[in-house]
Design goal:
two-stranded parallel ribbon; 11 helices; globular
Length: 320
């Protein structure tokens, strides 16, 4: 195996952090865009009373969500032009840059202005269809292409590890940050807008979430890593300590347990039947306290695993 000098190792450290940021944001934004399209925008069509208040709340939150982090994703993928491993072909980075620019620029120049138009002029079928189509073609599809390239790049980067451990890690890494995106939309966008929905429209509004096939998919994506976390204690890429796998598994188990025992029976099921403002407020407060804060290990552990793998690859080949 080719050895590296200390100076080259420092450059590889920069590359490692750039890769980590880009991969996290790639999977995160697919979760954000998919959740916005399949739940938030689908719910918009069911709101007629209090529509202006609903859209004002939605616009305020999404503008904060999209204000800064997409720029970091663009900067990180641009940096890969100069700081990338040899296993990353140039064509893959160029395509990733193009897809990233498409999804981010469409967010600023198509999605947010269309949301504002709905807020200012009221619901319009043509404007709403433009919003749905723009979200699909200019956010979701480019993001899917980015994710497919990210799979290819991650597989290349981990090519010195065994197949099973490599893909256990890729699955965990992908699903963790995809669900970070979906959970942020659910907690910081969806729940607050529920307070604007009139009680007479609640059942139809709620059915979008309850009956959406994507809801089942999101549950599978969120908890599939639970099925592989135990075998990953034995089959995992070199450099990942068991303690990180254990922390990840325990926090994931906590999310599943608190959701099944508390959030579903005590809040979500009653909300299927009627709009209860106190329950929505309880959901917003306790979701942050019991899932977001206490489950931080679920989102921190995978990036630490990636950095451990990268540092192992760098320092086992260094020449003093």
């Amino acid at each position: 195996m080719e050895k590296t000098t200390t100076k080259q190792a420092l450059n590889e450290q920069k590359s490692l952090w750039i890769m980590a940021i880009y991969f996290v944001l790639t999977f995160y934004y697919l979760g954000v865009f998919a959740s916005m399209h399949s739940t938030i925008y689908a719910e918009v069509a069911t709101v007629h009373k209090n529509f202006s208040n609903f859209m004002i709340s939605l616009n305020a939150i999404t503008r904060m969500l999209y204000s800064f982090v997409p720029v970091i994703m663009i900067v990180s993928v641009l940096c890969l032009l100069w700081f990338r491993p040899k296993s990353f072909p140039l064509w893959s980075i160029i395509i990733s840059i193009i897809m990233c620019l498409v999804s981010v620029s469409s967010t600023f120049f198509l999605i947010l202005p269309t949301q504002s138009e709905l807020s200012l002029k009221g619901f319009n079928v043509e404007t709403y269809q433009n919003l749905m189509q723009s979200s699909l073609y200019y956010q979701i599809i480019p993001s899917i292409i980015q994710v497919l390239i990210a799979f290819y790049l991650l597989n290349n980067y981990l090519n010195d590890t065994k197949f099973l451990g490599r893909w256990f890690f890729i699955i965990i890494f992908t699903f963790s940050y995809f669900t970070l995106g979906t959970s942020q939309i659910e907690g910081f966008v969806n729940y607050p807008t529920w307070l604007s929905v009139d009680t007479s429209e609640w059942i139809g509004f709620r059915d979008i979430l309850v009956k959406a096939s994507s809801s089942i998919l999101l549950l599978v994506v969120a908890f599939l890593p639970l099925l592989i976390i135990i075998p990953m204690l034995w089959w995992r890429p070199k450099g990942i300590p068991k303690i990180l796998v254990t922390i990840y598994g325990l926090t994931l188990f906590w999310i599943l347990a608190i959701t099944i025992v508390y959030f579903v029976p005590h809040i979500q099921i009653p909300l299927d039947k009627q709009n209860i403002k106190s329950l929505i407020e309880e959901l917003m407060k306790n979701d942050f306290r019991f899932r977001v804060l206490l489950a931080s290990g679920y989102f921190i552990a995978p990036i630490l695993m990636f950095l451990k793998i990268g540092n192992r690859k760098i320092y086992e080949n260094i020449i003093d």
